[in-house]
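If you are new to this repository, start here. Below is one unmodified record pulled from the training split, so you can see the exact layout before writing a loader.
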Amino acid sequence: MIGKQIALKIEWDAKNIALVVGFWVIAFIIIMIKEHINTKKGEKGEDLAKVREVLKRLLPDYSTYTTAYAEYKTKSYRGRSTTTTYYHYAIAFKPGALYVLPIKYSGGEVSWQGNGALLTKDNLGKVEVDKGDVETALFSLDGKELCRFRVWSSNTRQDKYEPFNIQQKAEAEAYKTFIEGFVREVNGN
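And here is the target side for that same chain:
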């Protein structure tokens, strides 16, 4: 009798394990398909074109700049709760100048929030860059952090807080090259 109960217990556990494994395999496949679809949408360039359109309206000599999408998210912890804040930027850059514009995405359209800033060695105190993931931090002349962002080559829509499908490999590489020179120019290194 005890041997039969053990055999049933083992059989029941094997079925549950198979169900759980099956669930995770299916979930993984769905996530990978969604990611592939979003990457393909990003390759079409529709969201990046919307970001560029905003920059074109606000930046007088737009055509002389390389443009890209940048983002940043921060987490703050209060007791047991965590708050994540998302920042989205349209950026434009050329030797000696970086234009940063906060943007938002709503109803399939990109719009800007507040005013953008044209940043140069004359109005920046310091630029910090983490070479690992190209996180850029910009500081005013009095040392106050103005903004922080990353320029990724691949951005895919995750939810309403990460809404963009943008593939920008060439722009991300151009930004890496630009920011190295910009850091030397602003920081005097």
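Two things worth knowing about this chain: The first strand starts at residue 66 and ends at 78. The first helix runs from residue 2 to 44.
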